[in-house]
Amino acid sequence: MAGLKIGALVAGLLLSLTTGVFIMSQAHAVSLPEAAYDEPLAAKGAAARTITLAGGCFWGVQAVFQHVKGVTQAVSGYAGGAANTADYESVSTGSTGHAEAVQVTYDPSQVTLGQLLLVFFSVAHVPTELNFQGPDHGSQYRSAIFVASPEQKKIAEAYIAQLNAAKAFPAPIVTTLEPLQAFYAAEAYHQNYATLHPDNPYIKYNDLPKLAALERTCPVLFKP
């Protein structure tokens, strides 16, 4: 099924050649302020927390968060739809309600939710693209934060409002805040895809530049 993404990339490159506008990658790197409203760092030994984020193809989002300090696990999967459609072939139709998402587990004594959202908005994806990211189009590639608590929703809402007020992007943020009903891990071949397939053209042009951008723009949060 990875061929769907490769096909989208090839189509995009051909279109670029015919229009004279050639974009080598979908790398997104914007210097953003820290969240004004955030959770405090927890005491050492505090229980792990999770946040579920959708920002286009889960390969790149997973790869980015695997390189963020304090993140102990990042799993590619599906959120927003029913259990019986939580598979790649069904989700790729764009009719299931699911988004390709990544569930990020983190140590709250090392990194805060606000810092994770800074990475999400500044490097992991482009939050002003409605129902697409780079060469991938459809509601399954929407920008979304699946909130699991009122506090997560409050922090996310406040940061989006802060960035919009600061005009951090040339267009309004379209990221939706959706209640997390369930998260379904994706098929095994999708896990750690960028790490295992660094020479895949899609990964080379869309995702590896995000890791370089993370190290460059968020050096305090970057881990090799």
Provide a descriptive summary of the structure in words.
- The protein has 224 residues and is α+β, with helices and mostly antiparallel strands.
- The chain has a single domain, classed as 2-Layer Sandwich (Peptide Methionine Sulfoxide Reductase, Chain A), CATH 3.30.1060.10.
- It is 35% helix and 18% strand.
- β6, α5 and β7 form a beta-alpha-beta unit.
- It is globular.
- The protein starts with a helix and ends in a 7-residue tail after the last helix.
**Could you describe the largest sheet, including whether it forms a barrel?**
6 strands, mixed
Shape: globular
What is the CATH first-level class name?
Alpha Beta
CATH architecture: 2-Layer Sandwich
Query: Averaged pLDDT, please?
Result: 90
Q: Tell how many strands the DSSP assignment holds.
A: 8
Overall domain count: 1
Short structural summary:
This protein has 224 residues and is α+β, with helices and mostly antiparallel strands. It contains seven helices and eight strands; from the N terminus they run αβαβαβαβββαββαα. It has helices at residues 2-19, 58-65, 88-91, 113-124, 150-165, 193-196, 201-217; strands spanning 49-55, 71-79, 99-106, 132-133, 136-137, 143-147, 176-179, 183-185.
